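Bump. Still looking for Lysosomal dipeptide transporter MFSD1 structure tokens.
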Amino acid sequence: MNTSVQNRGVAWVVFVLVCIALYGNSYVYDSIGPIADLLQQQRGFSDTQIGMLNAIYNLPNIVLILIGGVLCDRFGAARMTLYTAAVCLAGAALTAFSPNFAGMATGRLLYGIGAETFNIATLAAMTDYFTGGSIAFAMGLSLGIGRLGSYSADMSPTWFQHAYSVGWQPPLVIATVIAATSLAASLAYWLIDRRQTHQAAGPAPGTARGFAFSDLLRFGPAYWYLVILCVLWYAVIFAFRSTFSIKYFQHVHGLDLAAAGEINSYVFFAAIFATPLFGWICDRTGRYAPMLAFGALLLPISIAVMSLTHWSLWIGTVLIGISYSMVPAVMWPLSAKLVPAARFGTAIGLMWVIQNGGVAAANLVAGWLNDRVGASALNPAGYDPMMLFFGICSTLGFGCAMMLWLTAGRRRHEAATHASLPA
Ligand SMILES: NCCCC[C@H](N)C(=O)NCC(=O)O
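Sorry for the wait, here they are.
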């Protein structure tokens, strides 16, 4: 859909629908963490299997997300949002109603195939309907609404206490109903977009510049620092916060399921408001690299605080919450500034290919480390290797953010003769 021809009201209706769809998608993504302990108790799943249920989301996307980006260009954001939301619903239902691990894993695989391309399609929807001054705000706000979905999933043991007292399955059925809502919102968005496209006669999907492998080799060093930071930082955030943190809080810090889910949820809750706020500040000040380095630094600090001290869990939670809000708020607008606009889709696709590989590996390595040492409520020290692993990854990620910052002066100098680049 071409933005220049529609009224702001339609843009905001589309924004609300896309946000509802994003909310549901994030809820389903984070629906495994709160039932991890129940899966172990009631179905005898190992930590490796639980890690696999999230890792398998990422595995197909190590390849497919590049194709997904190309398909979004080819068929348009609205159609791809609708198609992928339908795939996600099928995956969520299969996960909830499967009698065994293989079926559940297949459901998560299907969900993963749909969800990452869905995320690119929703980003593309924002760029379709919001140009110029409001794009960063719209993107930050939509990321924030996605975090609301994650927050709701973490709060679900409190909100849907009865479902959790029955067992592992009812929470996943609730996730399936929410995925159906996401599909309904995607359908409404597609219908509106189709009408707008007919009225505006904007550029037809499929006219976008084609994908060329040589594009991948032309990104500068700053882009690659950002890619490595993206991989390491998201690997820790997703493997820890979305897979193992609730169980870790239960077993190491002695919280019950509801309290562990609640404290985890505040990270997402803070991000709902803080992500658009940090994006706004970043836009105003233009201090991308220092903000990114600061946000990246808070992650290893929070891991160290949680694993090496007896300080309140709130301290680690607040630190990780700031990191979780600040890094994405800066990373996506910064990536748009580091690569030419015509190759932005390719750049994000490539970043997410590598990110998905890193997140899958981190989930598997963390689960394997826990199983190998027999981490449990009776052996809380068994979680130490996992936390050391997360500490190392997040520290290396911070190193990349520092490299980005340290080379910012050179980029500024080069930018003086070419286009404007951020500090
Ligand atoms: N909904 C959770 C998975 C999203 C993964 C996606 N590749 C991504 O990085 N999105 C940006 C973000 O900050 O969530």
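The domain at 1-200 is CATH 1.20.1250.20 (Growth Hormone; Chain: A;).

Edit: fixed formatting.
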